[in-house]
Structures are given as structure tokens and as C-alpha cells.
Write a structure and sequence with these properties.
single chain; globular; 5-stranded mixed beta sheet; 28 helices; 20 strands; Immunoglobulin-like; 5-stranded antiparallel beta sheet; alpha+beta; 870 residues
């Protein structure tokens, strides 16, 4: 690749200013963002941790052990974090301490791929630390790092696009604390989202100077994106970066062939990112292509932001404020109300868009004009998709990958584009020859910001709200409710802020028209100079007030709590229960003992919270009317008795205990839980579940033992070749016994007719690790050994050290034909997609790093100053 640095081809109005070469503004920006995250997470310095796991104490069985009021630490909108994401990180940490790389999760769905789960995100650069440090203590610092990186990378991109330092800093602050990043902060979505400006900077450097070193650096950035752990957001970030490349290259004054070459090279960078992340993407893709999520059109259900959701852009707590104990009350999911980037950035972004529409040529000719054009188009396209403009849903449904993704999350593009437009508007306003429009704008914004600060600092106008507590108390005392809790009042305030924004914009436009007239220019420009005699100081004050407003909003969504609150030791009854399970499983109704807590407390659960779900397991849960992906067992399936289909599933999945809340059951004080009679049979011939817990308070959950659960490993007396649907029917048929007759897809020549000799065959699990299960068998005849664990093509089986054929038994489980006699059957999980993906990733990353090192020795030292556009 040749050096394409040529100043004549770039617009002089959009080249980075000389001030960018000064390290001073960069250092101040980095320090400023560090102060912001320090203020937001200052309680981490007091020994607390970042986690919403206090909600664990709301449900049984932990509620019975509650000795203090944890209400101040509750955050109901982050249920996914403590139910799934934090358990995944804990499992990763514990597996590393055992000296293994966790590929399989034995604690959910009769087993589930762990590394191939698209959201376990073990190899995300933000999660590498979890291999060595307890996530409870590492999550807070890593969250702070995410936000700092989002702010600083956005600042860096803004300076490359000719934004003035203060405007670029405002853009960085607006993006780092925008609703998308703050509300998804502990999810892998935020990991991919905060990488967006980093990727854009890498592409911008590559577009400016096509060199092998810049290509390799961009390839490493693209690889990091694909490792972040949320495939949908990774895809959307990739699409947004592609849109940036197209417009950025299109604005260069070059020949069409040269532009095409630059675009193709940037496309190759994305290809290198996918190849470099093969260790993660290949196993995930293998699972996805076999899943219900890929084959069923569930994703095509309309997903758009209702028009009333736009209120979230001007009123961040309009749809609920977690710290005030108000659960989300907005349209669809709470993130759909996450449009807030601050009132002043929102107003400035509106200025950019309006000016782009009214006078596009003059706007682009001014400083930061390219930024306004690029991100104006960005916001327009993302807004059309998010709001589902008529006809767009049909188009998206026909586009590859878009049809399978939740495109509502392109809200990220709206917020990042809005943040960049705000900094660009700031830049153009401060370069206007007529200062009247500038200072009129800032004066109106100062009034709005002062009003917000007045409310936050504890003033108590009659009828506004009933709390005197100031901002300091709001940050230091979690028990302080948030002001403006009343729904209708928040709505009114939201519209007032929007009206003020429209009013100051009108004043600004009017002042520009008046200033164009020679007669009124002097008179119009006189009063702002007298009022704003401090010159630049009010500008900095506005930035501080904006940051304060964003911090106030962000503080509510990510609870910092005492470490004792997070995943405490289990209650005594719970410990006895897990000790009694052996190699069996447990299930609970509703959200008692929420799914994936099994990973934290070391037992196996029939439920789970993982993705993507195998197509046959999804069909199973649909037949039971459970929610696919996170099957919460409805309590009515065990109240007043256990339904036959549910009983059959529990038997065949080796479920030995049921934890349920028997409130409303007329027999809740009974020592037994009966099985409902089969249709057409008034007799109940199935053994009842026996209550085994010692608590007298049924409200805290009752524990029942299943006397008819299958052993986890057993021989089948007869094997029949049948379609998978037939076997799935038998899973839910209480009258069918898999120990008498099991099903496989193809006939097995080694097995003859049914033999009673296998009824006395023995199968004992001697070693039971996540990716390695060893079974000692003894049988008088060859037979099918069934292990009641989820079938997956990545499992390999050997008999006495010799490879054997792994079979899908009874649609859901694993099976192998074992000869007569005594044998050791060993199941190991080592999918080829992981092995080959690792080889490809190591080779690709090694090549990219080698290019960076070799090219660095033969080129000037890189840095922020060297990356400026000349």
C-alpha cells in the first residue's frame, strides 16, 4: 500500500486544526473523562462493588435469610445482569482457577455450550481480567474503563473531524454517558457500543493514509469488536462503521477508482476482523445455524420505537427511575426509552440538522462541515429504522442478517450521531462571524441548565416535589428518592424543556437574520457583549452543567452496593438441597431461584438463560408453554398437582427436586404433591412428590423430591429408529419409558431385538466434569447407553479409549452403543469449530501484530499528533 497523504485532496475547512498537535488539549480531555467516571463510580473507592445482585434477596430462598433492609440497593430493570451475565463471569473465573477453558455449561438446559453462547463474552478484551480476578471486584473498574474509552475515543474522532477541543469534549461526554451505554453498561452490548468510536478512528486513519501498518491496526480494532460478545450489536457497529467509510471516502476529492479502492480495503479490514475472531464467531455460528432463533421467523415481529418513546430524549426519567423504586413503565423494553444524550447536546444536534437542511453547502464549507454531513445522514437513516417509517420494515425483513437482528438497537447510531452533531454545531457556532447567535444560544441554554441545577440542588418550590435532599445526598445516600417522581409532572417538565429548546433556536435564527442587516448589526451585537463580559467562561460552565445532568441520570442505572449483598452464601436449607442432588437436576417454578444461579451455587437446573437455543429444545418449551430462551416454569403446572407432561420431562431429565411456592394451593400444608391424573383415567397411578424441606413458612418456597426420576445414565432394553418428532412426543408422554424403549434416527445394526438382560445393566458416573464425563458400565449384552445430557455435535465419545459413534438419543440426549461386559465410556467436549477457530485466530492476530511491529520500526513514531489530517 502506498502513502495516500495528500493535502490537495482534502477539504481545508475539514482538516484537523493545528491545536490538535498540542498534547495539552488531549491530556485535559483524558483527565476530564477520568474525573467523570471517578465521580460516577466514587463509591468503588469505598470498597463497594458494581452489581444489581441485591435483587437476589427479593426471591426465595434468600428472602428467608434477610437480616437488613436491602431496598435502597434494588434495581429491577437489570434482571438479566444478576440472573445470567454475572453468573457467566463467575463461571469463567472459577473455571480458570480450575485450570480449564470453559467450553460447556452443565448447569442449564441439561447442559449448554458456554463459549459458543453468543453473550458469555469470555474473550472480550473487557473480560480477559475475569480469568484472573473475581468479577465481583473487577466489574466496576472495567465498567469505568468502558465509559472512559467511549468518551476519549469520541473526542479523538471529533478532533480528527475538525471539532474544536471543547466541542469534541462535549461530544465525548454526551456519548460516554448516553442512555444506551449507561443502561447497557453491564451487558456485552455496551462493550461493542463503546468500541464504535475506536473503530471509526482506526478507519479514519486508514482512509487518510493507506499503509500496511494502519491496515493492521484497523484489523486488530475490527477483531476486538467481533470478540465483544454480543453478535447483534457487533453487526450493527460494523454496519455503522461501513456507512461512515462510504460517506467519508465519498467526500474526498479523488478519482472514483481511488475511492473504490479505499472502500474495498476498509471492507477487507472487516473481513480480517471476522477471521481474527474465528475462535469466537465460528462456534457461535455453528450453534446459531442449528437454532430456533435462525430457523423460526420470531425476529420478524415488528420492533420499533413508538412515537411517545421520543419523550425519553428530553426526559430521562419519564419512564421510570430505578433508584426511586419505580420500575420501567415505558413502551416495550426499557432501553427503548434510552434516547437521552443531555438537553444541551440534543439542542445543538438539532441546530446541526436544521442548518444542514436549510443551507447544506454553506454548512459543509464551515469548520466540521463533513462531520455534520456524515452524522446527519447517520442519524437520519438510523431514525428511519428505529421509528419504523412505513415500508422500512418490509425492506429490513428482506435484508440478510437485518431480518434476524433486533434493529431497534440502532438507537446506538442515533445517540452517537447526535453526540457528534452536538460537538460539530458547537464548533460552527463558535466560528460564526456574528457572535449574537452564539451568545443568544448559550444564554438560553444556561437558563435551562440553571433551572435543572436549581431542581437538583434541593430547592423546594411549592407543589413541585416533597424532597429537600440535595445532590450530594442523592449521590451518597442510596435511600434518597429521586425528585420529580410523579409521572404527569415529569411529562410536563419534559415538554417545557422541549419548548425552551425550540424558543432559543428561534431566537438564534432570528438574530442571524437581523445581524445580516447593516443597520441592526451594531445595535444587535451590543447587549450580548455587556451581559457576557466573562467571554469564554460561560461556555465552560455550560459543559460542566451538561456533564452534571448526565451524571445525575447515569447514577441511577448502575448500582454500587456493599460486597456482602452480591451472591451471598446460600441459606442452610439450600445447602442441604444441593448436597442431596448428587448428579441429578433441580427445577423451580416462576423466578424462585432464578435461572443460571445454578452456575453460582453449583447445581444443575433444567432451566436456563442462554442463547441460541437448540431448535428441538425450543419446540419442547413451546409445547409446555414456557418462554423459549429463559423457560420460567409456570406455577400452575404444579398447582394443585403436577401436570403429566411436566412430570414426564422431569423424570426423563433426571430432575430430582422441585422448588415451588405453593401459595394458593389448597394442599400447601400437605407433605406430598400429587401428579394430575392422565386424560381419560381417573386414577392417579404415578407416585407423588414428597416434601423434604423443614421450613413451615410456605411463602418462602417448598422443596419436593421426585421419586420417579430416571438415573442420569441408563441402558435401553429396546432401540427403535424413528423421526425426531416422534422421540420428542415421547419425551412429554408420561406413559412412555425410555428405559424400555429409546429412539435414534437411524437403525443400529449391532443391536438386535429387545433383551431383558439389559434391565439389570449398570451405568455409574465416576467422573463428572463440565467437558469430561466418564461412565463405568456393566451389561450382559450390547445396548444403547443414554446419558440424560443435551446432545451436541461437539461431544466426542470413546469406549475404553477407542473412538465410538456419538448418537442423538431420544431427540434431546446423548447416546452410544456399548458392547457387552465392563467398559469405561468417556464423553469429552472439544468441538472442531473451536479448535480450528483458535488456529485461524492465532495465525491472523499473529500476522497483524507482526505487521504493526515491523512497520513501526520503519516509520516515524505514531501518536495523536501524527494521526491528524494534513
Amino acid at each position: 500500500m502506498s502513502d495516500a497523504r495528500s493535502s490537495p485532496t482534502s477539504s481545508p475547512t475539514n482538516s484537523a486544526p493545528d491545536s490538535f498537535e498540542s498534547r495539552r488539549s488531549t491530556l485535559w480531555a483524558a483527565s476530564g473523562y477520568l474525573v467523570i467516571v471517578g465521580v460516577l463510580f466514587h463509591r468503588l473507592l469505598l470498597g463497594e462493588v458494581l452489581s444489581p445482585a441485591a435483587n437476589l434477596w427479593v426471591d426465595a430462598p434468600f428472602r428467608s435469610e434477610l437480616r437488613e433492609d436491602f431496598t435502597p440497593y434494588l434495581n429491577g430493570i437489570q434482571g438479566d445482569v444478576w440472573r445470567a451475565i454475572e453468573p457467566w463471569h463467575i463461571y469463567q473465573y472459577r473455571a480458570a482457577r480450575e485450570g480449564r477453558f470453559p467450553l460447556w455449561n452443565p448447569h442449564a438446559f441439561c447442559g449448554f455450550p458456554f463459549h459458543a453462547n453468543g453473550q458469555s463474552a469470555m474473550l472480550s478484551p473487557f473480560h480477559w481480567i475475569y480469568f484472573a480476578v473475581d468479577p465481583k471486584w473487577a466489574a466496576g473498574p472495567m465498567a469505568a474503563l468502558k465509559l472512559w474509552l467511549a468518551g476519549f475515543a469520541t473526542f479523538w474522532l471529533g478532533r480528527r473531524l475538525s471539532l474544536v477541543p471543547l466541542g469534541a469534549f462535549l461530544s465525548g461526554a454526551a456519548f460516554m454517558l448516553c442512555a444506551f451505554n449507561v443502561r447497557w453498561l453491564l451487558w456485552p452490548l455496551a462493550s461493542a457500543a463503546v468500541w464504535l468510536p475506536v473503530l471509526l478512528v482506526a478507519f479514519d486513519v486508514l482512509i487518510e493514509r493507506m499503509s500496511w501498518r494502519n491496515f493492521a491496526v484497523a484489523g486488530l480494532a475490527a477483531t476486538a469488536l467481533q470478540l465483544m460478545g454480543h453478535p447483534e450489536t457487533q453487526f450493527h457497529v460494523g454496519v455503522l462503521s461501513g456507512l461512515y467509510v462510504l460517506v467519508r471516502v465519498g467526500l474526498r476529492k479523488e478519482k472514483f477508482g481511488t475511492k473504490t479502492g479505499r472502500v474495498l480495503i476498509c471492507l477487507a479490514v472487516h473481513g480480517m476482523g471476522v477471521v481474527g475472531a474465528a475462535v469466537s464467531l465460528w462456534p457461535f455460528a455453528e450453534q446459531l445455524l442449528e437454532s430456533a432463533d435462525w430457523h423460526e421467523p420470531r425476529r420478524l415481529i415488528a420492533r420499533e420505537l413508538p412515537v411517545e418513546g421520543l419523550l425519553g430524549a428530553v426526559a430521562p426519567d419519564h419512564y421510570g427511575r430505578p433508584r426511586a423504586g419505580r420500575f420501567y413503565q415505558g413502551p416495550q423494553n426499557y432501553v427503548e426509552a434510552g434516547l437521552y444524550i443531555g438537553l444541551m447536546p440534543l439542542a445543538l444536534a438539532s441546530v446541526s440538522l436544521v442548518r444542514l437542511v436549510i443551507e447544506p453547502r454553506r454548512t459543509r464549507a464551515r469548520p466540521a462541515g463533513d462531520a455534520i454531513l456524515i452524522f446527519g445522514l447517520w442519524v437520519l437513516l438510523c431514525g428511519i429504522i428505529v421509528l419504523s417509517v412505513p415500508g422500512i420494515a418490509v425492506v429490513m425483513a428482506r435484508l440478510p442478517l437485518f431480518s434476524k437482528a433486533d434493529n431497534l438497537r440502532l438507537l446506538l447510531g442515533v445517540q452517537f450521531g447526535g453526540a457528534m452533531l452536538a460537538g460539530a454545531a458547537w464548533t460552527q457556532l463558535t466560528h460564526e462571524s456574528n457572535r449574537l447567535g452564539v451568545w443568544t444560544t448559550f444564554s438560553a441554554l444556561a437558563a435551562v441548565a440553571a433551572g435543572i441545577a436549581f431542581l437538583l440542588l434541593g430547592a423546594e418550590p411549592v407543589g413541585i416535589y416533597s424532597h429537600r435532599d440535595g445532590l450530594f445526598q442523592l449521590w451518597t445516600d442510596p435511600t434518597v428518592p429521586a425528585p420529580l417522581e410523579h409521572h404527569s409532572l415529569r411529562t410536563l417538565v419534559s415538554f417545557l424543556f422541549a419548548a425552551v429548546g425550540v424558543f432559543w433556536f428561534w431566537l438564534w435564527r432570528r438574530s442571524l437574520r437581523h445581524s445580516a442587516e447593516p443597520r441592526s448589526r451594531a445595535a444587535a451585537g451590543e447587549w450580548p457583549r455587556r451581559i457576557l463580559s466573562l467571554r469564554g467562561r460561560p461556555v465552560g460552565l455550560l459543559v460542566l452543567l451538561t456533564v452534571g445532568d448526565l451524571l445525575w441520570v447515569a447514577y441511577d442505572f448502575n448500582p454500587v452496593v456493599p460486597s456482602r449483598v452480591v451472591f451471598p452464601d446460600p441459606p442452610q436449607e439450600f445447602r442441604r438441597l444441593t448436597e442431596s442432588l448428587g448428579d441429578g437436576r433441580l427445577v423451580a417454578t416462576g423466578e424462585i431461584l432464578s435461572p443460571n444461579l445454578a452456575m453460582v451455587y453449583g447445581f444443575r437446573d433444567l432451566r436456563g438463560y442462554d442463547f441460541p437455543l437448540d431448535a428441538y429444545w425450543a419446540k419442547l418449551f413451546q409445547r409446555l408453554s414456557w418462554n423459549p430462551g429463559m423457560p420460567l416454569v409456570p406455577r400452575h403446572q404444579t398447582n394443585p398437582c403436577v401436570y403429566p407432561a411436566f412430570q414426564s420431562l422431569c423424570d426423563k431429565c433426571c430432575v430430582r427436586f422441585l422448588v415451588t411456592n405453593p401459595r394458593g394451593n389448597a394442599n400447601q400444608s400437605s407433605s406430598e404433591l400429587a401428579v394430575c391424573p392422565l386424560p381419560g383415567d381417573s386414577r392417579n397411578l404415578h407416585s407423588a412428590w414428597i416434601r423434604v424441606d423443614r421450613r413451615s413458612d410456605a411463602a418462602e418456597g417448598a422443596v419436593y423430591e421426585n421419586p420417579t426420576a430416571y438415573p442420569r445414565a441408563y441402558f435401553a432394553e429396546q432401540v427403535t429408529a424413528a423421526a425426531l418428532e416422534t422421540a420428542l412426543d415421547a419425551v412429554l408422554d408420561l406413559t412412555h419409558d425410555f428405559r424400555k424403549e429409546s429412539f435414534v434416527r437411524e437403525p443400529i445394526a449391532e443391536l438386535g431385538e429387545a433383551t431383558a438382560a439389559l434391565a439389570s445393566a449398570e451405568a455409574t458416573i465416576e467422573h463428572d466434569a463440565a467437558e469430561d464425563v466418564r461412565i463405568q458400565t456393566r451389561s450382559a449384552a450390547a445396548g444403547l447407553l443414554v446419558l440424560s445430557d443435551r446432545y451436541d455435535a461437539g461431544w466426542r465419545v470413546a469406549i475404553d479409549g477407542q473412538p465410538a459413534e456419538a448418537l442423538r438419543a431420544n431427540c434431546l440426549f446423548r447416546g452410544v452403543v456399548v458392547p457387552a461386559g465392563e467398559h469405561v465410556v468417556r464423553w469429552t467436549y472439544r468441538p472442531a469449530s473451536f479448535v480450528w477457530g483458535s488456529v485461524i485466530s492465532v495465525a491472523t492476530l499473529g500476522a497483524l501484530l507482526l505487521i504493526v511491529v515491523v512497520q513501526r520500526k520503519s516509520s516515524p513514531r505514531g501518536g495523536l499528533a501524527d494521526s491528524a489530517v494534513t
